[in-house]
């Protein structure tokens, strides 16, 4: 059976992470399901110069954020994991409090209730106390908070290398077969 990965993209900066996860998912033979919020579409256009249609073409399937009846909103639709990359503080708060008012937050809620991997690449700093408490709440529910903090020990030469390294680490954490962070960090096994 093909592994399924749900990728959410919200309005925080860092749309390159979501795009890289979709592209790497295709390389690894994953079935990817994209949910991009309206603010996420704006950031994808601003940061990457892509239209909604161009972004959706990178995924196996794309779902409208208002379609709360989509397959990814059901616990019977088995997935390897869900990654929100990037994850805004608004989406974090909704997920932390079970406020499934759109497909992205509903799919995250389902991921948690089914005890599957939920990884949130939170991107807004500095954090205030509400942000930290929401991260704690998600962690206590079994989610993983993964701010994409760049690693410099491998002497990256480009932003792309930094994005690739973080995305590969997330895929490994999600349990995706074939993910290989060491391939990106330049270190020998």
Strand order of the largest sheet: 3-2-1-4-5-6
End-to-end distance: 30 Å
Mean pLDDT: 94
Percentage of β-strand residues: 15-25%
Largest sheet: 6 strands, parallel
Helix content: 40-55%
How many distinct beta strands? 6
The low-confidence runs, each spanning 5 or more residues with pLDDT under 50, are: 183-189
What structural class is derived from the secondary structure elements?
Answer: alpha/beta
Helix and strand element order = EHEHHEEHHEHEHH
Outline, from the CA principal axes? globular
Radius of gyration: 15 Å
By DSSP (H or I, 4+ residues per run), the number of helices equals 8
Written account of the structure:
There is one protein chain. With 189 residues, the protein is α/β, with parallel strands linked by helices. Helix content is 42%, strand content 16%. The chain has 8 helices and 6 strands. The chain has helices at residues 15-27, 38-48, 52-56, 89-96, 103-113, 129-140, 159-173, 182-185, and strands spanning 4-9, 31-36, 61-63, 81-87, 117-122, 144-145. Strands 3-2-1-4-5-6 form a 6-stranded parallel beta sheet, with helices on both faces. α4 (89-96) packs across α6 (129-140). The longest helix has 15 residues, at 159-173. 47% of the residues are buried.
Layout of strands and helices, then pairs:
Elements: E1 4-9, H1 15-27, E2 31-36, H2 38-48, H3 52-56, E3 61-63, E4 81-87, H4 89-96, H5 103-113, E5 117-122, H6 129-140, E6 144-145, H7 159-173, H8 182-185
Parallel strand pairs: 1-2, 1-4, 2-3, 4-5, 5-6
């Amino acid at each position: 059976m093909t592994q399924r990965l749900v990728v959410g993209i919200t309005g925080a900066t860092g749309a390159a992470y979501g795009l890289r996860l979709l592209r790497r998912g295709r390389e690894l033979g994953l079935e990817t399901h994209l949910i991009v919020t309206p603010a996420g579409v704006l950031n994808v256009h601003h940061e990457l110069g892509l239209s909604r249609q161009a972004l959706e073409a990178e995924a196996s399937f794309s779902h409208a954020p208002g379609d709360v009846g989509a397959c990814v909103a059901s616990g019977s639709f088995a997935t390897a994991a869900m990654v929100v990359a990037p994850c805004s503080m608004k989406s974090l708060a909704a997920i932390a409090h079970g406020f499934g008012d759109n497909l992205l937050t509903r799919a995250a809620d389902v991921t948690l209730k089914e005890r599957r991997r939920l990884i949130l690449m939170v991107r807004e700093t500095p954090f205030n106390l509400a942000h930290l408490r929401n991260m704690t709440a998600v962690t206590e529910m079994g989610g993983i908070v993964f701010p994409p903090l760049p690693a410099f020990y491998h002497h990256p030469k480009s932003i792309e290398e930094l994005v690739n390294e973080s995305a590969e680490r997330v895929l490994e954490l999600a349990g995706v077969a074939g993910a290989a962070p060491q391939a990106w960090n330049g270190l020998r096994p």
